[in-house]
Amino acid sequence: MKKCFATMLVIMMMLSLVSCGQKPEETPAPQTTPAVSEPVASTTAPEIPAWKPTKTITLICPFNAGSTGDAFSRPFAEIMSKIAGVNVVVENMGGGSGSVGTNYMLSQPADGYTFSYHSNTGALTTAAGTAPFGVDDVLPLVNICSDYHVLSVLKDSPYKTLDDLVQAELDNPGSVRFGGAQVMGNNHLFALNMFRDAGFTAANYIPYDDGGSSALGLLGKNIDCLFSTASTVVGYIDSRDMRVLAYTLSDRIEAQGDAPTFAEEGFEHLNGYISFKGMFINPDCPQKVLDWYKDVTAQVCESKEWKEFIAKQGQIDTFMASDEFNAFYDDYVANATELFAAAT
């Protein structure tokens, strides 16, 4: 019996060992190589650091100290200094109807530390071919303000309306004595635009040295009517020694009472005709410099301080940012070039 039990125990142990030895092996997980991502090309251009001046900026006023250009350049520089956080100083450099100063600005390094003021005088000397630079040699930055133009007569003039004057000249070409400041200046261009739109064939334009002397010419009855900026004759209009037949703004303003605009009278080329003032720079400056100037000069013009200043000066807020002013400037020069060529 004991022998039989021992035999059975041995058999059970052997079966247990066999069972353990036949346990199936685990299948090892397949070995994989980690995927390596291919570099993806960036579609975003690297950001160009914004430019900011680190030293004094010079604003060239191409007219003498005490001039109209000087009177507008200095407050502009003062406000710009506050906004830019760097000193902006005005340097007067008169001569050549503003060409000397502008040419000097263009001769300086195109690094953003020199820019210039100019009025439409610069555009007119370019159109007349007397400037040492072309229309593409300067970049208009911003139109800071403008004066508009008026056609005035004496208070007792027989020409009660613009139509009276136009009809008199059409009926008898060359009979009306038109006057204004300078030849190939803004008043001359004003006159030529009117002559073209009115269909005058032999209109007589009498030039004076400046606005003041041309106003005296009308008061002295040496001319029958006067082409001028509104600011030139505002005192005479207020005193009622002169009256305005029409003016060049697109819409009527209270200051001109019942006088019509040229636009209302059908004068296409005098609709919005202005004597502009602006800031210019060398177009060869790096784009980031130009972008900074466009932004900062626009901020000056939009400031409350600047708006209050030009209002006191009797100027019209005709703010134009760089792109709009650039297109306006090119058209202005092209129109003046055509009319001046026809007049010579």
From TrEMBL:
Q: Which residues form the signal peptide?
A: 1-21
Region ranges (Disordered): 22-47
InterPro entries assigned? BUG (IPR005064), Bug_dom1 (IPR042100)
Q: Name one Pfam family in it.
A: TctC
Give the SUPFAM superfamilies listed for this entry: Periplasmic binding protein-like II
Q: Which UniProt keywords apply?
A: Signal
What does the record list as coiled-coil region(s)? Answer: none
The family assignment reads: Belongs to the UPF0065 (bug) family.
Protein's name in the database = Tripartite tricarboxylate transporter substrate binding protein
Provenance organism: Yanshouia hominis
